[in-house]
Amino acid sequence: MTQAFTGGCLCGAVRYSCSAEPMMAGHCHCEDCRRSSGTGHCSHLIVPEAGVTITGVTKGYDRPADSGHVVSRHFCPECGAPVFSRNSGMAGMVALRASSLDDLEVFKPQMHVYAARAASWDRPGEGLPSFDTMPPGM
Question: Where residue 97 falls among pLDDT bands split at 50, 70, 90?
């Protein structure tokens, strides 16, 4: 098991700690991730929800993904910083935003998804597997 890690929003009103090993870590270039991040992609750590403790109040925004599953993106209502999301197709899991980590080195990316939708100025680099959409089984 990994050492516990922490993170939170820009103003500190929302904080989390995670004692669970990330199941997956990657960069997503889908339109929703681009728009919610304010840049070319989002980077997420997918962890078992049972290993995450969140303090503070978040506001969520629900939107269907290409798969038809609903993604609920949570952010701090004070500073607007994105913190985590849940996908109805991944019960029991939470996607923590890598940008919200206190120690950014906890994030060890494993792949790029929706690489076919990447902006020309944010193309996936060499060294990580890239999938045009979501990989099979996800």
Answer: very high
pLDDT digits (tens, 9 = 90+) for 51-66: 999 999 999 999 998 8
Among 61, 31, 43, which Cα is nearest to 7's? Answer: 43
Percentage helix, strand, coil, to 5, in the chain?
A: 15, 40, 45
CATH number for region 5-119:
2.170.150.70
Residue of 55, 54, 89, 58 whose CA lies nearest to 71? 89
Q: Which two tokens stand for residue 31?
A: 């339109």
Q: Helix, strand or coil for residue 99?
A: helix
